[in-house]
Amino acid sequence: MYDEEGDEIVELVLNFFPFDNSVQIINTKKGKTLLRRVQLPPLKLEMLQIGNVVNIFSKLLQITDCAPLTRRTLFKNVESTFAMIKPIPPSEHGKILTFIMKNGFRIVRMKNGKISKDFAIILYHNISGSNMMPIIIDYITSGEVIGLELVAPDAVKKWRKCLGATEPSEAAPGTLRNLYGENTLKNIAHGCNTLEDATQMLELFFGYEKGIPRIPFRATLNNCTCCIIKPHAVIDGNIGSILEVIATSKKFYVSAIALFSVKLLNAEEFYEIYKGVLPEYEAMCIHLAEGKCVALEVKSDDASINIVSEFRKVCGPRDPELARQLYPESIRALYGKSILYNAVHCTDLPEDGELEVEYFFKLLAND
To answer: Which keywords does this chain's UniProt record carry (predicted)?
Structure first.
């Protein structure tokens, strides 16, 4: 935790008691109990992942490690794998992401992009001698893909099992390829065979070289609006559902998508226009910084519309209760819980659409 008065990072011990959802915070170096055991209903066990930031009574704590017993109990055999959604219509992305999250994977990194022939050759090195290789390379580099880092116990094997057989007609019922695959080539998604391959592909897809992402972000920063899927909606597994609402609106499409972790200072800067205007400004900033969020650049094929104003109708009023009364099919009506936890942020002012997209995809992406 950052101590503003002492201008230092303080190491604390957070004890979580899942049977009654209570927490206790101890400063072991000083031998002081900073927070006596108290119930905290909003805190969920799945939030307590190493690297996550949690909000404990408006104090942001970053989880850096856990006790050995906790690691053996909660994180036994937990690992990362690389998954990639192949070039398919963007309208299909939502249901694929929903499938992934419902099958127990945690998405910790995600972005869309176009891969090069060199990247594809490395990705499919295990079939380098196959006569299908040139066809696969042409297909996989023909359009946009979505790369993901998925975390789960035995994630590499689990993802391969969830994918199903390469040929969709031979895939087990309920697997991703059985549900949505067309043929051996267009079989929805890719999975790595080994942990070593997964580690290599994660670095190649999400890594940076001389400060520049190896796979560039796809934001156009032109005639667009910004939508941020808030941390609570990410934790609730609603990324895919929200993307489906946007896709089925028929007016809009997502041109860029990426998962971000936002620092409190950045959240305050991003929401600055609401300072002194909205009473929940401080709480909004804390929530944006307390977990991972998904940034979207949203565009429309209809150049005649005011994209910022029209997309706000898809999101609905800021108050989900009001949204449920007036626009029951809007994003906030369907997935919002309160004015603070209202599922998404969307650009309010027409002149700010490109600026807000730029803040995430240009400034934070290269931070």
So the answer is: Cell projection, Cytoplasm, Cytoskeleton
Measured between alpha carbons, how far is 76 from 203 in angstroms, rounded to an integer? 23
pTM: 0.89
Rounded to whole angstroms, how far apart are CA atoms 254 and 87?
A: 14
Q: What is the pLDDT along the chain (367 residues), one digit of tens a residue?
A: 555 565 567 889 999 888 888 999 998 888 889 899 999 887 877 778 777 778 888 778 888 888 888 877 777 788 999 999 999 998 899 999 999 999 999 999 999 999 999 999 999 988 887 888 999 999 999 999 999 999 999 999 999 999 999 999 999 999 999 999 999 999 999 999 999 999 999 999 999 998 899 999 999 999 999 999 999 999 999 999 999 999 999 899 999 999 999 999 999 999 999 999 999 999 999 999 988 999 999 999 998 999 999 999 999 999 999 999 999 999 999 999 999 999 999 999 999 999 999 999 999 998 6
Range of the domain at 306: 224-366
Q: Which of 93, 125, 190, 287 is catalytic?
A: 190
d(CA 312, CA 306): 10
C-alpha to C-alpha distance for 244 and 134, rounded to whole angstroms: 33
Dihedral angle computed from the Cα positions of residues 166, 169, 171 and 172, in that order, rounded to the nearest 10 degrees: 180
Specify whether 190 is catalytic.
yes
The answer to whether residues 14 and 87 belong to one domain is no
Which residue is it, tokens 């979207």? 296
39 φ, ψ to 5°?
-70, 140
